Amino acid sequence: MKRFRPHALVLLTGAAFLAGAAATAQTSAPAQPAPAQSQAADEAKVLARVDGEPITALDLEIAAQDLGDRLPAMADAQRQDYLIGYVIDLRLGAKAAKAAKVDATPDFERRVAYYRDKVLLDEYLQKQVEQAVTPEAAKALYDETMKNLKPEDEVRARHILVENEEDAKKVVARIEAGEDFAKVAGEMSKDPGSAKEGGDLGYFTKDRMVKEFAEAAFALAPGKVSAPVKSQFGWHVIKVEDKREKPLPTFDEVKEQVEAYLARKAQQDLILALRKDAKIERLDKADGAKPGEKPAEGATPAEPKKN
């Protein structure tokens, strides 16, 4: 989804720096291309030709974006070879289709107009995202969110799951006799996920477990073992290892989610603003309201069909 391009300010700064350094040095060495020029040169590099028509690195980039997840995972050299072959086939197929006058229909023109609008919107939204998703905006959103988060209690516990109360009592008896909880869990627990880990469930908040289990676990002090606890899964014997406040995630841990939120919000805000300022007529609605608007005064919304 991400398609962030270098910011214009970064490119301009780099170009100005190179120009200043060249002037200060006062040498006759050939000037180095500015970053923007280098990028343009890379994109315009011709990698193949089809009936004289060039295929450039930018053509491959566009094809890769269009293919998305359908592009097989492969090494860079193989990827380039695959994309060149794909664009060659695309050009040949399009040329043959044009010769067959596939494009000489009103339906085709409609489809071209639709995809032109779609590409224009995609590019416009991407520019809005680039403006909205900045390091400063991401950090500010993170700081504001963390400031309003209330700390949650967590428990780290082990458990042994068995089918009936009698087996659960046998587990408790073995633990009280001094046997290691993890060893007994490995032998008796019916929970395939945690048995091989000595019954260890890691840290969890109260809302992540079924009610009976959570209440028993959070009532125990660290190091203590519960009496048998019944839940919808069977009978549990629980040992609490530790209690703590759930640590807040660091900025680096949630940076991608923060940026994704900012991107979605920027796109949504733009679309809502465009709708607000436009004259939209919904001819499929009796009241002519815009999508999301309340019906006009006195209008009666359509009633559902009665069975």
Automatic annotation (TrEMBL):
UniProt keyword list: Isomerase, Rotamase, Signal
Q: Where is the signal peptide?
A: 1-21
* Pfam families, A to Z: Rotamase_3
Show the segment(s) annotated as Disordered.
282-307
Catalytic activity reads: [protein]-peptidylproline (omega=180) = [protein]-peptidylproline (omega=0)
Give residue spans, biased composition: Basic and acidic residues: 282-296
A molecular function (GO) held by this record is: peptidyl-prolyl cis-trans isomerase activity
UniProt EC number:
5.2.1.8
Record keywords: Iron included? no
Q: Which residue ranges does the record assign to the PpiC domain?
A: 152-242
Q: Which domain of life is it from?
A: Bacteria
Keyword set includes 4Fe-4S: no
The UniProt entry's sequence similarity note says: Belongs to the PpiC/parvulin rotamase family.
Name under which the protein is recorded: Parvulin-like PPIase
